[in-house]
Amino acid sequence: MDARSARKTCLSFVLPVALVSGAALAAPASAAESSGVRARTPAHLVDGGGVDVRVRARCAAGLTAFELGATVRQGAATASTTEVARDVVACDGRHHTRVLRVVAPDATFSPGAARVDVYLATFDPQEGDVVVTRTSRIRLTP
Questions:
Q1: Over the chain, what is the mean pLDDT?
Q2: Which single residue of 24, 43, 102, 128 has CA 20 to 30 Å from 84?
């Protein structure tokens, strides 16, 4: 067997073994890595100057989601809302969409660009409380 054939034979045996071994030795993802949250655009303006923000959230099975929140900023208008409840989002590894109504007490939102910060808080039995956040630009529409 020449050197080139030996190298091919070695790679055809070692590479699959290395991949299988690497997959078996890979560390499990942390709660923060297995969770995610983001605001979907557009967000819809509602009567009274508030905004319905669609939030897409995901957390791994074994976690418990207990808080979901959003803060919207547009010019002088700033408002936040928070939902606190056990299993506010099902933790099953899939994405779920929730609608959060955000109302500015001293100002109203209008059509156009805005910034939104969203967060998802979960409890992990190994890591304790874990919070994931994301800031995005969204479009507010009537």
A1: 83
A2: 43
